[in-house]
Amino acid sequence: MTKVTIKVNDNGSYRITGDVELVDAEGNPFVTKPTFSLCRCGRSSNAPFCDGSHKGVFESVVRAPKE
């Protein structure tokens, strides 16, 4: 099984890479590719996937704490 990576993009989406199953609240699966982006701004018309609607209107930079 491949390790799943979730990258928090600056001012954008969550980028998911790896073997993962994405399901809705009822357990129904979404069709995904090996790499896909999830919306985190709430503006996508293709939720839960990112459609680029965040560009220019969503600002968020998240960094992991340094050890």
Automatic annotation (TrEMBL):
SMART domains: ZnF_CDGSH (SM00704). It holds the Pfam family zf-CDGSH. InterPro entries: FeS-contain_CDGSH-typ (IPR018967), MitoNEET_CISD (IPR042216). The keyword Iron-sulfur applies. Residues 20-60 form the Iron-binding zinc finger CDGSH type domain. Keywords: 2Fe-2S, Iron, Iron-sulfur, Metal-binding. This is CDGSH iron-sulfur domain-containing protein.
